[in-house]
Amino acid sequence: MANLVNLDRVSKGYGAVGALLTNVSLGLEDTDRVGVVGLNGAGKSTLLRMLTKQEEPDEGRVTHRRDLRVAQLPQSLTLHGDATVRDVVLGTAWLDEGFGAEHEWAGDAGVRAVLDGLGMGHLGLDAPVGPMSGGERRRVALAALLIRESDLLILDEPTNHLDVAGVNWLAAHLLKRRGALVVVTHDRWFLDEVCTATWEVADQTVRAYEGGYAAWTLARAERERVAAAVEARRQNLLRKEIAWLRRGPPARTSKPQFRIDAANALIADVPPARDSVSLTRLATSRLGKQVYDLEDVTLHAGPKEILSDVTWRIGPGDRIALLGANGAGKTTLLRLLAGITQPDAGVFRRGQTVKAAFLSQELHELPGHLRLLEAVEEVARRVQLGDRELSASQLAEVFGFTDKRLWTPVSDLSGGERRRLQLLRLLAAEPNLLLLDEPTNDLDTDTLASLEDLLDTWPGTLIVASHDRYLVERVTDTVYGLLGDGQITHLVGGIDEYLTRIGGTPTTPTATTKADKSDKSDALSAADVRAGRKELGKLERAVSKLEQKEAKLHEQLAANATDYGKVAELDAQLKAVQAERAEAEEAWLELADRLGDG
């Protein structure tokens, strides 16, 4: 491993905002893949600009290895309006001249693969950039970075404007790419899949953790539990998040380096994330038996056919995810369900008790002339969410708005804050059916966790169109796909089945951490896997017995506290048992990692 970048006691602030980073020291090596997380406005983009020397620190020093090649995708970028895809991707219409001219790349077969992977395969190299949407222009710029070699690749929200397949492809591509990576993203599945380390930007500092989003969540909860420095509401939210992580795909939690029993202790008394039976019962009582019935429905978006003679029924308490490529018609279908548009043919019926709320991708419906709290109270002063009654200010707090922000004019809010307010107003109206179109846009990871916590206990019908794999797996129970054939396809296997059907490949195995000292062994035979699982069972039983033995020794120590000779004897036994248990746990972790069962 070679060191690429060092930040030495760096501080940075801005006049209107104040200090963002204070006395930060970090190092970046050539094999690091770092995910940067933190609240909106905490200083993540500022940190990236310091890493690339686009901005100088107010104090401290940033040093680069000599001849370091840095490629960066910023949050906002400007492409020449008269440039073509060829100019941007193969030439120098946007990037620094140092990356090389067109002739060095024109023959590279990987160029077409990159464009296809990012969903740009339909564009010719001579297509002009000027008429493209913002999302298409961003994908063209991302393609330009990915086809070039660099020592350090820095990406600010690279998954924006990518569908599920595009995010999956990008993760697989980055896992195979040589060189260091630093990425800011709110896509938690992507962080887990790609990153081997996490930098948390908060409180004017940067904390470094091993592993992706799951490891960071567990480590942060452990740190806060030990410190006992956070209020009960926030701690309970983190513990619920951990319960979800531990119940989800096993690979999520295979990498944290602290004791696995500490994580288990945190979630020992946490109830299931959702009681589906109770929620369905509540939803039935609120919604009635009928929500939506589509019979032989045909639906177009302009000249493009979205649905062709489709029959689909949605019941009370259903929690549905809609998947599809950009342009597949997810928004058009949601607009039909919201009653904004009508089908071209067929019958569309909505239950009489349905009270729908539609979260669009636009922000123009917010009242810019009001202050934040007034905008919430305009809808409702008190809200009943599941078994909780909240005031307008309490609901605002759940969505990350502190007392200081409650009286901020809506027109002065950032894009992420406006998105949060939009969601807040929808829930304040107490609907019994939510239609969410890309609800995670512009939301940071903490706000997403708060939103998911609310949706876990929300007893209505939920239909979500999202490319955020983590959100889909967390808050929905059923997945349907728009695959371009005019039908709504039930995907029993969820996102993995969707990727298989469209020709993608799930990214396996997940990213390894820096603690993995050697490459994984070749694929195990079926016999090896069976033997390994049998050994895992033995180790689990051994750990359980040692835990019981350790507990009895603690009891005996307490009972013989005044007998110093007995205490010394029991203490020696306890240390031996603890060492044996640690050894068994380590063996379990290593074997589980080999089998992919972490």
TrEMBL record:
SMART domains: AAA. The keyword Cell wall biogenesis/degradation does not apply. It holds the Pfam family ABC_tran. One of its GO terms (molecular function) is ATP hydrolysis activity. Keywords: ATP-binding, Coiled coil, Nucleotide-binding. SUPFAM superfamilies: P-loop containing nucleoside triphosphate hydrolases. Residues 506-526 are annotated as: Disordered. CDD domains: ABCF_EF-3 (cd03221). Residues 529-587 form a coiled coil. InterPro entries: AAA+_ATPase, ABC_tran_C, ABC_transporter-like_ATP-bd, ABC_transporter-like_CS, ABCF_ATPase, P-loop_NTPase, Val-tRNA_synth_C_sf. Residues 5-235, 292-511 form the ABC transporter domain. This is ATPase subunit of ABC transporter with duplicated ATPase domains. It comes from Catenuloplanes indicus. The lineage of its organism: Bacteria, Bacillati, Actinomycetota, Actinomycetes, Micromonosporales.
